[in-house]
Design a protein that fits this description.
19 helices; 5 domains; Transferase(Phosphotransferase), domain 1; protein serine/threonine kinase activity; five-stranded mixed beta sheet; Ubiquitin-like (UB roll); alpha+beta; elongated
Length: 712
């Protein structure tokens, strides 16, 4: 087979290259006895011309290290024909970080979760190398590989051709590395031939990491002279050497001698947000300003400890990845979310955090399994807000044809902006779904709150009825005491207030806002993704044509036709986004804002009514002492009246009441006292009590018997 090469235990095809560097290439291979996939690194003329001790140093370092975030070496073998050494390593099918960033969809940097994983994995690998006192000396996106293309893929450091052992205080003299990622002092010596810089320590890796992290976060290099660093090395050297503390980027526009503009933040095209964005910027600045490995590890560990909690903020229709150290309470999440939102001067009002249709208490712990399609709903954290729209790049204009090289670069930029538009439309589609889901969840919480309020008010009425029963009974007996009058007044007042809060609840039910949201055109996101993919195919074709240096008339005609298609795709997507999607989302946002503002007002009113009802019930329950006082005073009044009646009976020598006398007296009282008549009708036991006392005691105190029944 043409291009087939073999070593003692492995084979590979020279036509199946995985990557290429300054000293050699890496090919896809397999183990002869098992067929297991491997990567085989061979050395070119430059690599073979290195001194043998440098060659062996790479082998020794690879044999000495083993870590999940470092590409594992399996063996060093000899190629059968040339007898030259080859390195057999684990295969990483996800490509290098450089390859990933070259893809149009990552032209403005990695997504947040991917960048967080990159920083975490690379830091873990660097921590291991520092423990082994190994310095890499050529850290760059091309030397960081992705294990595979799965969501759980690991990033791994590779290519230890320039690596050596070096303790923390030692220095080295030799020059290694790639110039865009070189430490400023090494750049002065290696590129600008400044002989003053003569020695460097292990922290040169930290500068390379800073540039790599910036590149990964933004899709571009941090220091960009006019025409690029390779064509304008003097300005590149000036940018890195004269960088102000805290600055993480510099750009020169218009001319090679133009003004240098410094920046301390990531560019607008970078979609990182909030606390995570600030933390990444601070990490890059710390590494560039010059820090120890321990300082780097502490700051990186802080970023690694951040967990994404997804929050949908109703006032701005914004889906937020809030970064927070878990475990944490809902109250802490609210403070972290506030930091991500526009500042408001209005007084703090009641707000609500809702998840899966349940209201989250401020002291509760944050759920750790939120997702982009199942976020926590934030209602009332801010009152009003404009629709949040991520910064979206506009495709460059495609002018007349100049060259295949320029068109290929232009095609990559066009594809990148089209994918950026697609990502924005994906976000708008996502928040459209989240707004509908949030409305449903908020309505569930509101309806539950109204149902609980109804139950609370019913319990209040039961408490009031108990006190009212006592008042009605005692008033019906023509008893008038100070406590009874107070009790009567309090009950009447509480009944009026209870009626008011009940009417307020009913009015809220009758005025519930109706959800009526506009929808994006059906399939708009799918169509935009299709166009972006078709544009990407054109870019791939142009790259192939550029690599092949094909300039036949047929190829050139095809190239120009693809330019026209690319221009059409850009025009179509800009039209769909600017004229249809975004204006519709603005109108939709107005309706969602009005709806959520109305339902927020309702929920705040429900809580106010609930608090009023709770206070009324508390006031009602506090009547128990007044109830006892009213009963006691009424009993004393009855006893006093009873003694007076007995005295009058004794003076007229009526003597003890017989059964017939008791019945006659009861009939008389029924005619004279309608209130007592009602009491007797409700409590037939009164006659039995009177009769029983007359039979057993030959006498009966009628007032005492009636009072006993009334108060028990």
């Amino acid at each position: 087979m043409s291009g087939l090469r073999s070593s003692q235990n492995h084979q590979w095809l020279t036509s199946d290259m995985l990557g290429q560097g300054a000293t050699g290439g890496v090919y896809r291979g397999w183990r002869i006895d098992t067929g297991a996939s491997v990567a085989v690194k061979t050395f070119n003329t430059v690599g073979l011309q290195r001194p043998s001790h440098v060659h062996n140093r790479e082998f020794d370092i690879l044999r000495a290290i083993s870590h999940p975030n470092i590409v594992q070496m399996f063996a060093v073998e000899e190629e059968e024909r040339s007898k030259e050494s080859v390195i057999v390593m684990e295969i990483c099918t996800g490509g290098s970080l450089y390859n990933v960033l070259e893809e149009p969809q990552y032209i403005y940097g990695l997504r947040e979760e991917h960048l967080l994983k990159l920083i975490s994995d690379v830091t873990n690998g660097m921590s291991y190398l520092r423990e082994k006192e190994i310095i890499h000396r050529d850290i760059k996106p091309g030397n960081i590989l992705r294990s595979d293309c799965s969501p759980t893929a690991r990033w791994k450091l590779t290519d230890f051709g320039a690596a050596r052992q070096l303790n923390q205080d030692a220095q080295f003299m030799s020059l290694y590395g790639t110039e865009e990622y070189l430490h400023p002092d090494m750049y002065q010596r290696a590129v600008l031939q400044n002989r003053q810089a003569t020695g460097w320590d292990a922290t040169v890796d930290l500068w390379s990491l800073a540039v790599t992290f910036y590149h990964a976060a933004t899709g571009q290099l941090p220091f960009r002279p006019f025409n690029g660093p390779r064509k304008n090395p003097q300005t590149m050297g000036k940018m890195t050497k004269e960088r102000p503390p805290g600055a993480i980027m510099a750009v020169q526009q218009h001319s090679p001698t133009g003004e240098i503009q410094w920046g301390t933040d990531l560019p607008k095209t970078c979609r990182l947000v909030g606390r995570f964005r600030k933390s990444v910027s601070q990490l890059i600045a710390t590494l560039m300003d010059g820090c120890s490995f321990d300082e780097y590890f502490v700051q990186a560990e802080s970023i690694q400890g951040m967990k994404q909690v997804y929050v949908f903020e109703c006032a701005t229709s914004k889906l937020l990845p809030v970064y927070i150290q878990l475990p944490a309470t809902v109250s802490q999440l609210k403070e972290a979310t506030k930091a991500e939102l526009p500042k408001e001067k209005s007084k703090e009002k009641l707000d609500f955090f809702i998840w899966r249709g349940q209201l989250l208490n401020s002291s509760a712990m944050i759920p750790e399994d939120t997702k982009t399609d199942e976020p926590i709903i934030s209602l009332g954290l801010i009152e009003k807000g404009q629709l949040h729209l991520p910064h979206t790049a506009k495709p460059p204009s495609i002018s007349s044809y100049q060259s295949v090289d320029q068109d290929t670069q232009l095609a990559r930029l066009c594809c990148g902006t089209l994918f950026d538009i697609a990502r924005t439309v994906e976000y708008l589609t996502q928040i459209e779904a989240e707004a509908n889901a949030a409305a449903s969840q908020v309505e569930i919480v509101r309806d539950n709150a109204l149902a609980q309020l109804k139950s609370l008010q019913e319990a209040l009425l039961l408490d009031l009825n108990a006190s009212s029963q006592i008042v009605e009974t005692l008033v019906g007996l023509n008893i008038s005491t100070a406590s009874l009058r107070r009790l009567h007044g309090e009950v009447r007042k509480l009944r009026e207030e209870a009626s008011t809060v009940s009417k307020q609840r009913i009015q809220l039910i009758e005025t519930c806002p109706k959800k009526s949201f506009l929808s994006l055109p059906e399939g708009v996101h799918v169509r935009i993704c299709q166009v972006a993919d078709q544009a990407s195919e054109i870019y791939v074709d142009m790259k192939r044509r550029r690599s092949a240096r094909s300039s036949s008339p047929a190829e050139l005609a095809c190239h120009k036709a693809q330019r026209l298609r690319l221009k059409k795709f850009c025009s179509e997507l800009v039209s769909v986004f600017a004229e249809k999607t975004f204006p519709l989302m603005k109108k939709r946002h107005q309706s969602t804002t009005s709806y959520f503002h109305a339902i927020l007002k309702q929920m705040r009113l429900i809580e106010m009514i609930r608090q009023s009802t709770l206070q009324l019930r508390k006031d009602c329950q506090s009547l128990s002492e007044l109830n006892k006082s009213a009963k006691a005073e009424s009993r004393e009044a009855f006893l006093k009246n009873s003694k007076a009646s007995s005295s009058e009976l004794n003076e007229t020598s009526l003597g003890p009441l017989t059964n017939l006398d008791a019945e006659n007296l009861t009939n008389l009282l029924q005619n004279e006292l309608p209130a007592i008549n009602q009491l007797i009708q409700r409590n037939q036991k009164l006659i039995n009590v009177i009769k029983s006392q007359t039979v057993h005691e030959n006498s009966c105190d009628l007032n005492q018997a009636m009072l006993n029944i009334a108060l028990n």
